[in-house]
Design goal:
Strand content: under 5%
Structural class: mainly alpha
Order of helices and strands: HHHHHHHHHHHHH
Number of domains: 1
Number of helices: 13
Length: 361
Amino acid sequence: MTHSRLETFDSLTGLRFLLSIWIAVFHLGDMYDHAGFGSWPIMKAGVARVDIFFVLSGFVLTHIYWARSKAKFDFSTFMRARVARLYPLHLLALAILAGLVGAAHLVGKGSEAHNFTALGLGANIFLLQAWGVPGAGVWNFPGWTISAEFFGYLLFPAFLACASALRHRPKLFFVLTLVLVLLIDLGFRLLLGRTMTQSTADLGILRGASVMFVGVAARVLFETWHLTARDAFRVVLLGTLIAVSGAFFGLATGMVALGGALLVIGLAARDVTKPDSGVGTGLDAPLMVKLGGWSYAIFILHVPVFMALQNLAGVLGTSILINPLTIVAMTAILMLVSACAHYLIEEPARLWIRGAKRRAQ
């Protein structure tokens, strides 16, 4: 089976679930037990999770719209599909938070919610929360990533043009995208006094788009890099080691992007070789693929859900102490809410938005 003929990479869908649940648990510790669970050394490696997501998005979108597609790229159709993917649950998350802020004002605790400004909310509604708008990062703070990714969508036609121009020199293309990430990171250090890894709501668009570009180049490289099942496994291990080490030791974002790209390439290659080898990755199991379908809901809703649970506990006159039991319980509730949101809101809304053009015709 050729790389382009494979419709989906199930292992990458399973990877989405692992990344999203890792992010949720990380933020649970960071929000409510910063000095305890949130300070565990393994949490330092959590920086890798977001950049691997960006690489993954670039890889998968390039597979869909460049490697597999025989039709000319239609930017309006592409953007409609992206809006259908992001917006329904993004607006749901903002609505939950707005309800919590409104409730705080009603019960006389408005001072605790004073950072949730109308300007910040507006920036979130228009996906500008990674552009440095004051107060934008307070509202559903992990949402800066979808703002950064949306910026990458706007640049995607240029990414595909580069992919086509350099498709016969994939290694050079891949190296050039990594150099670009390193140069942007250097610019952040010299001009802003911080690393690109520290950039989220404040100019996180550059981080998201540039690392997504690495994912585009990784898919072009994957087209000609035919790995055996054993070699693919080695690439997965190497990529994981580089990405996690780069995040843990605070190395340049380019190192995390390199590791993430190798991880994604290796997992995709294992999916390609599975019919012959008969050995999967575990991430391609039906349950993991199903959970991967909930990954965006888990990611975008985890902060509102955790805040709602803590506020509910406050109404009942108590608080939720973070320990292994409450982590499991809150994560289980998050997954239940995410599953309901996926099937009742995300999927129907996505189909409706993507079908709007056909209905108009």
